[in-house]
Amino acid sequence: MTIAEVKALGPKQKVGEVRGQVQPDAVTRTVVVNGVDCELKEVVICDSTGQMTLTLWDRFVNAVEGSKSYAFKNVSTRERQRAITLSTGPSSLVEEVADMKVAGASGSRAESTRKVLLSATVKGIEVCIQRRCSACHARQEAFAEKSKLHRCEGCKLKQAASAFVPFCSGKALVATADAEQCGFQLTNSALCNYLRREGLADLLLDSEAIEEHLLESRDLTLTVNEDRYVEAIERGSAEQPLAPQQPEERDSSSEQL
Ligand SMILES: [Zn+2]
Question: What's the CA-to-centroid distance between 227 and ligand 1, angstroms?
């Protein structure tokens, strides 16, 4: 279906497949659904017929990159603030497709996606790791780390421990370069991406080890959005704060060579 066709569907409709180019701006945050922390990322997708907001949940948060084109399969429509949006579900699939080269696409979300890069030192931190059943997504209250098998508290299926996927959340008090102290929410995707890149994926099972590692890391750069969520963690210092994003400003001719 095209985006214009999807928008004409109304809410709570299933969409077998819609293709779109993901705009560079995205917003990540954490919400609580049925008592379980979930991470979501809102992106704007567009094709030649229009654009719309798509919410990527949990495992799909890292499935797309800005400016690339994807086929979104088995998604469904929602109504929010009188606009039809799309949302992934447990059976969704996201596959990269050839660049759709959408002309004149404008993310038009600049005001809601201001982000800053902070050179930061972590002064205080709390990391929580929840295990979730990959079959039914239920949060496990009594998961014994190091056990080989575990019975899901939701669907009651006994499964290998690896079927229970860790989900990190937490908060951090950080000191920035100008000695200001700020509190931020940590997202699962930022923590997982950082630890994997640093070759520390093993720490994902140990919240205390993550806390200690980040407290001892002197030079971190955090990408923080307006809602005070940390969207990315990197090693090294930020050169300078990122100016508010201006989607139109892509002319490279003014760059110094
Ligand atoms: Zn389950």
Answer: 32
* HSE-up (13 A, CA, CB side) for residue 256: 0
Beta-bridge mates of residue 243: none
Q: How far is the CA of 137 from the centre of ligand 1 (A)?
A: 6
Q: How many A from CA of 252 to the centre of ligand 1?
A: 50
> Residue 154 Cα, ligand 1 centroid: separation in angstroms?
5
Rounded mean pLDDT for each run of 10 residues along the chain, 257 residues in total: 94 96 88 84 94 93 92 95 92 94 60 75 93 88 88 95 91 86 93 94 91 92 91 78 46 44
Length of the chain: 257
C-alpha of residue 155 to centroid of ligand 1, in Å: 4
- State whether CATH 3.10.25.10 applies to domain 3-112: no
CA 133 to ligand 1 centroid distance, Å = 5
